[in-house]
Design brief:
By secondary structure, the protein is α/β, with parallel strands linked by helices. It is built from eight helices and six strands, in the order αβααβαβαβαββαα.
Length: 179
């Protein structure tokens, strides 16, 4: 069997824990919820996650609105150790309120993830996405545009498994620093 290339091993500095990689996808869109627009953003996120070893165990669509998004995220994160990705509602439209709803229910923010996602593309500067945790769930906002959602999620997907492991209590895999 051939040895793995450096690019296949360089970002895996620790052994994988036995934490399953599962994900939930929440599409936030008035048009998709009303059935007048196709859920291309949710489909693109689902495909990317599946291609990267995640088992997408739930996918739902809701209309824009702070209360709707906050309620859906609270429900999706309850008792869950995994990734929740939203698509839609991160722009400057009058009903784009996904970041406000997400911020309302987060226990802790993960600004490094959101910053890395916005840096993935010059148009990322127009995104108001945030990321953080609720309980043991990692919640990440992405834009509704399929290409934007995929590009932003790809920017952080390599570190998501480690975050999920840490939230599951597998801190023995966390690098320690000798003083």
């Amino acid at each position: 069997m051939p040895e793995p290339s450096r690019s296949e091993t360089e970002h895996h500095d620790h052994p994988r824990a036995a934490v399953p990689l599962t994900a939930k996808v929440l599409t936030v869109s008035d048009g998709v919820a009303a059935g007048v627009r196709e859920d291309r953003g949710g489909a693109a996120v689902h495909s990317l996650l599946s291609e990267n070893g995640f088992d997408v165990i739930e996918q739902r669509v809701i209309p824009d609105g702070v209360n709707e998004v906050a309620n859906a995220l609270t429900y999706m994160a309850y008792g869950y150790n995994g990734l929740v990705v939203t698509t839609g509602g991160t722009g400057f439209g009058p009903r784009d309120a996904t970041p406000e709803a997400t911020k309302r229910i987060l226990d802790r923010t993960a600004p490094g993830l959101a910053e890395a996602m916005r840096a993935a593309n010059p148009l990322g500067r127009l995104s108001r996405n945030i990321a953080g945790t609720r309980g043991r769930a990692l919640i990440i906002n992405t834009p509704g545009s399929p290409s934007g959602a995929v590009e932003m999620l790809e920017a952080v997907l390599d570190v998501v498994p480690h975050a999920i492991e840490l939230m599951a209590g597998h801190d023995a895999l966390h690098p320690t620093h000798e003083h």
